[in-house]
Amino acid sequence: MSYTLGQKQLDTIEGVLQQDLIDIGVRCVFLIDMAGNIIANRDNGKIKHDVYSLAALAAGNFGAVSAMAKIIGEGEFSLLFHKGKKENIHFNKIISDFLLITIFSNDISLGFLRLKVNEAVEKIKQVLETINVP
Amino acid sequence: MAFINPKKKEVQVKIVYYGPGRGGKTTNLEYIYKKFRERIKTEMVTIKTHGDRTLFFDFLPFDIGKVNGYDIKIQLYTVPGQVKYNATRRLVLRGADGIVFVADAMAVRREKNILSLKNLQENLANYKKSIFKIPIVLQYNKIDLAEQGIPLLPINTLEEDLNDKLKTPSFKASALVGTNVVATMKKIISMTISSIIKELR
Ligand SMILES: Nc1nc2c(ncn2[C@@H]2O[C@H](COP(=O)(O)OP(=O)(O)O)[C@@H](O)[C@H]2O)c(=O)[nH]1
Ligand SMILES: [Mg+2]
User: How many angstroms does the Cα of residue B178 sit away from the middle of ligand 2?
Assistant: First the structure.
């Protein structure tokens, strides 16, 4: 089973990642599916993370937390946040099959980031809702 | 659930090594990592316990070059084999495009192999996938142990136990020595890619 997105849809998503997140100072952002595939990613050009490994771990991490949510009777946690000394990671679920992962430093406040992530999520949702994930 | 990216001309394919705990799944990936060290530019990711058992999964990205102008990015995963880790095992299986079932050829592991294959079938069904439809290759691992006089299951017993209904390619292997590790991987990659191409037509 496989699925795809058109060039135009990918352009739209990458545009959103760039303008709403990278341009406000986010270091690195990627959109993945729950299998760990990378749909789109953008960074500020200063750092090169191993995005494929990050995607695999992020999907696993989010999956594990969702399974915990079920056990404690919470439908799910739709967002997650890991705080570091300098770098932070923010996860946001988009419909049922996708995750937006944002890596940002302490230069950006969490409140502002959340606001921008929410805006980006709404725009990306509109694109993803048009496709069929098997 | 391979993702095809027409913009980057790239296909990401997920292949999962499944099987009973201690059967040699992690050892398969370690061998591949060593053997293709210069082609795999990143570190192998492993999440394991103090006792060196796979807790969540191992992950190894493997680029095989282009097919029909598309870069094929193979993502190899292993699941934790221990029975108690079924929840995490199922998570790793999500979106798998192809499976290598690593059976332990030691005579004492006969029951464990059968149970693990049954568990695979159930977990796939959970994602509405059939074990008879997904590309799958069987590997009968640890055949090197015969030399040390350790009782192994005869191949026809393994075939009867595990491959009677599946009727899929199988390999005798030693993940430790490296026998047929690459052959197993090549087979599952080619079966998985043909299945993706077939489905696209
Ligand atoms: N003799 C022998 N030992 C093996 C072979 N493959 C794995 N092992 C050993 O079996 C144990 C479990 O292997 P591991 O790869 O961790 O199994 P996993 O639980 O399926 O990931 C380790 O001690 C390995 O060294 C093999 O082909 N021959
Ligand atoms: Mg293992």
Answer: 16
Q: Which domains does chain B have, with CATH numbers?
A: 9-200 (3.40.50.300)
Is B106 touching ligand 1 by the criterion CB < 6 Å?
A: no
Tens digits of residue pLDDT in B137-170: 999 999 999 999 999 999 999 999 999 999 999 9
Rounded-to-integer distance, Cα B194 and Cα B65, Å? 15
User: Domain A7-129 is of which CATH architecture?
Assistant: 2-Layer Sandwich (3.30)
CB of B61 within 8 Å of a chain A CB? The answer is: yes
Q: Which of residues 33-72 of A touch B (CB under 8 A)?
A: 33-39, 50, 52-53, 56-57, 59-60, 63-64, 67
Residue-range domain boundaries for chain A: 7-129
Residue B41 has pLDDT above 90, yes or no: no
Q: Which amino acid is at B39?
A: R
Q: How many CB contacts within 8 angstroms connect chain A with chain B?
A: 91
* Tens-digit pLDDT profile for residues B173-182: 999 999 999 9
